[in-house]
């Protein structure tokens, strides 16, 4: 339970960092590679969420004897407080929020699809709806279909119809419905994240701008015609969370302004690609390297090579937390302590704790003051990790605190 909450918190931090970096880099990306490059840079978000869970090279880890921390129970109340209720409460709130956001998105999508009415196939491969809740649009996930409004032929000229269909075909070729579905999942999981609403709006706008650029860049002479088709369609704000709409009224000015830009030269375009790749690789490497090494395997002694695991030299027990003592709480903590080649403690992580969060801070603070004998491999001191269990108990005597 606490592992899930810790994972959500860690993912939220990396999501915030990636969003802020993209917001700061977006003007430069637009100058170097245009809307398509800015849209491509959003790959950073899912990569940052996956990178911390990729496996790390494992340090050899050995276990030590348990560290006992005793304190008097004379002043403890008869009925202790269960501190583990907070993780359950927080997890319940998160789950209710995720379900609520999923239900709202599902209802909006279903309402949009129901408003389409009966769909009739057209000769150009698209489908014509009997209703118009915000068309033309690319609708569906597994087999997306281009759906146009009942007055499609009357509203748009044949040349404009061809441009609109080309736009929606570009959405389908580049998998934009799947990108929107992934965004819907992120909105459900991170419904509490303060930056996600802005990131979602900016992502969808960059998606439309990139599709516009892919449609008109090969045919610069059609930019005016394309702008005219945009102006004719800006009547209804799209409401389906997983449909790729032609209409997008809030960003009409931005789309028209993009059409006035000239195509980038090859050198700045290539510079932009390198910048996006560098951002993704650099930040994902930091996220990957920051993860805990909880999966490290215990070290095995090898007499032939004289491999020896790290040994504890001084494990001074921590002070019993006052809040836990006053409430009569006992518990256990298992630490993972990295020991460098000089025998000094490095990164200290909590592998497990019961009750969650009660004794973590005191345990980590004490572990950073401990001293060790470093592990040895082939006669040389090497970095390793120690798994150290700690038990916090209350006894019947009244020690001097």
UniProtKB/TrEMBL annotation:
InterPro entries: Beta-lactam_resp_regulator, Peptidase_M56, TonB/TolA_C, TonB_C. Residues 305-401 form the TonB C-terminal domain. PROSITE patterns: TONB_CTD. Gene3D superfamilies: 3.30.1150.10. It comes from the Bacteria. It is a single-pass membrane protein. Residues 293-317 are annotated as: Disordered. The chain crosses the membrane at residues 12-30, 37-56, 86-106, 266-289. It is found in: Membrane. Keywords: Membrane, Transmembrane, Transmembrane helix. This is TonB family protein. It comes from Stenotrophomonas bentonitica.
């Amino acid at each position: 339970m606490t592992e899930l909450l810790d994972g959500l918190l860690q993912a939220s931090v990396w999501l915030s960092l990636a969003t802020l970096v993209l917001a700061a880099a977006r003007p430069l990306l637009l100058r170097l590679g245009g809307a398509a490059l800015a849209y491509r840079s959003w790959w950073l978000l899912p990569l940052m969420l996956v990178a911390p869970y990729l496996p790390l090279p494992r340090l050899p880890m050995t276990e030590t004897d348990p560290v006992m921390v005793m304190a008097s129970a004379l002043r403890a109340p008869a009925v202790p407080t269960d501190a583990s209720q907070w993780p359950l409460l927080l997890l319940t709130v998160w789950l209710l929020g995720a379900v609520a956001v999923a239900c709202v998105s599902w209802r909006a999508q279903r309402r949009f699809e129901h408003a389409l009415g009966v769909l009739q196939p057209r000769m150009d491969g698209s489908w014509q709806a009997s209703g118009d809740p915000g068309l033309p649009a690319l609708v569906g996930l597994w087999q997306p279909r281009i759906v146009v409004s009942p007055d499609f032929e009357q509203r748009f000229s044949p040349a404009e119809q061809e441009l609109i269909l080309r736009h929606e075909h570009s959405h389908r070729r580049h998998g934009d419905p799947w990108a929107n579905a992934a965004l819907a999942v992120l909105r459900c999981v991170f419904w509490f994240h303060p930056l996600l609403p802005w990131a979602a709006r900016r992502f969808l706008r960059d998606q439309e701008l990139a599709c516009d650029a892919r449609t008109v860049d090969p045919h610069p002479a059609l930019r005016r015609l394309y702008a005219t088709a945009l102006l004719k369609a800006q009547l209804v704000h799209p409401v389906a969370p997983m449909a790729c709409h032609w209409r997008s009224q809030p960003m009409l000015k931005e789309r028209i302004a993009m059409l006035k830009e000239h195509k980038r030269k090859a050198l700045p375009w290539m510079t932009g690609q390198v910048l996006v790749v560098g951002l993704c690789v650099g930040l994902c490497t930091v996220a990957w390297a920051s993860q805990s090494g909880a999966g490290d395997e215990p070290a095995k002694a090898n007499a032939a090579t004289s491999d020896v695991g790290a040994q504890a030299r001084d494990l001074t027990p921590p002070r019993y937390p006052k809040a836990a003592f006053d409430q009569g709480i006992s518990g256990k903590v298992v630490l993972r302590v990295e020991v460098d080649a000089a025998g000094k403690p490095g990164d200290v992580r909590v592998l497990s704790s019961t009750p969650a969060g009660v004794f973590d801070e005191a345990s980590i603070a004490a572990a950073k003051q401990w001293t060790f004998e470093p592990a040895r491999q082939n006669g040389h001191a090497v970095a390793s990790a120690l798994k150290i269990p700690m038990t916090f108990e209350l006894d019947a005597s009244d020690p001097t605190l």
